[in-house]
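Final report, results section. Input specification for complex C-07:
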Amino acid sequence: MAQNAVPSTEALDHLVVPKRKTDVVGIISRVFFWILIVALMFYTLFPFYWAIVSSLKPNNEIFATPATYWPRNLDLSHYQFVLSNGKFLQALRNSIIVSVGTTLLALLFGATGAYALGRLKFRGRTAALYLILAMTMFPAVAILGSLFQMVRGDWFLHTPNLYNTKTALVITYLTFALPFTVWVLTNFFKAMPGELEEAALVDGATNFRAFWEILLPLAMPGLVTTGLLAFIGAWNEYLYALTFTTDYRAKTVQVAIAQFSGNTEYELPFANKMAASVIVTVPLIALVLIFQRKILAGLTSGAVKG
Amino acid sequence: MSAISDVLPADQPPILNMKGGNKPTSAVGRRQERLAWIMLFPSLLVVAVVALYPLFETFRLSLTNTRLASAREPRYVGLENYTDLLTDPLWWSSFQHTVQFTVISVLIETVLGMIIALVINSNFKGRGLVRAAILVPWAIPTVVSATMWQWMYHDVFGVVNDMAVNRLHILPDKVAWIANPSTALWSIIAVDVWKTTPFMALLLLAGLQVIPGDVYEASTVDGANRWQQFWQITLPLVAPALLVALIFRTLDAFRVFDVIFVMKGYATETMSVAVMARQTLIDKARLGEGSAIAAAIFVCISVLVVIYTRLIKIEEA
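Structure output:
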């Protein structure tokens, strides 16, 4: 079955195997192959389909047994509830600000650092690369307690208490966003052809100008991909958002969804949760599908999980 | 091929005015070296402040009895937090859940991911659509996927029970998948497998796509069947990509927090070491003991990294 997957052998089978046999075997394996594809599509898509369907059902249909797989009546009241909920909108705003802030800072620091690591030669380069690589595997929970102290300004420096602020989230999110950005962009810069930069250098431009005026514009596709992945990482983050915030001044949508309640205290909150889930996920899925190819390239060079 | 050299940029950037070695000799080289450090400085500063220093603090705090937001003067207690931890049954059950979660989910994700990668790697109509579809679970935030599955697993109204009991008649009665301690961890593993298998499949697909087709053609002429081709050609050639994927997945699975916390909170029957660390650090405000747990997690992850780099070196030889 899975061996069908190897494309080059399929064409050759017709040459090696007698034709009549190929037809029967071919049809059976083809049917099997398509059953596999359908099963795969069902497995990957059904849970999200179910979230959408549940968010669109009126309350009495959500809790119907047996369940309806195609909603009989479409009902937008859960979306109305979620979108008229000031707290949820505030959380959505917080998430956007934190994710965009994290992405921009990671790109700014990451691109300059990656240029140095990818295109300049200096003592300590290998050590710096290993440090960055090690940081990409860093477990966030290992520094949760000490970061909490630092966020509250409770360490050897006199820093303001940033607990329950978006600033705290942006700074702490750099622990995972920055090493990843540096890593992927280093590989990206390294793979770029040297001629343009060399020409600029021969013309008397400094290395920094060559970076700023020539390489950086050329690196735009890489910046977009890396930025997108950093944005997704920040948008999906949960542990730090849960720990360093307490109310809707800084709470992000991930925390809000996990804590979402029903319209009344007796109602199960699932329909509203599903509506909120669909709202925060659809833009993400759209982005991922639009930038599919770039994301695949970025993922394979950075090997991160979203 | 070593994974480190696979991911590390090869030492070949087109550097001007210099040949070989990282040591600059000319004036231009020295200027370049200074520029490199200036450009690297912001990143190194951030890493030092928000990662290296807190890591050092975690180890330091783990040797004290510090409490969170407490006026009491913390005291140095030596290795007491560690000896207490190693005799704490909750630590061992959490450790066991974490290992179970890691081994089982990574194993299933690898096998399933390989099958999916092989399927997508073949030429068929609608291939792009299938590849886009498997990206969907990956794009969904962990909290959202945990919430979605929580609803699907609902004991009375959940679609999983509806399918198993009312439609397919596989189960005689509805199961409280998450509430029942004997099914809870498995249910959570299933969510992780659903969300993460696409990632695995995409990494393996990248490895498969660099295998030249004529290798298969030659072996077909030699009479090898597809099963033999898989074991003797595909698997060895995709091994470097597989190892890199395994490293990242194992490290990621070992620090699992989101999916377990959203679905089960601090319930002890599914508690992972990361969940236990957060409870001790934040909810119980025991910064000393909690830091010992955090340090232990860091050590476990480091051991995993070392084991994997060794394995990769063997692979290379």
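Chain B touches chain A through 123 residues (CB under 8 Å). Residues 1-20 of chain B have pLDDT under 50 and may be disordered. This concludes the modelling results for the funded period.
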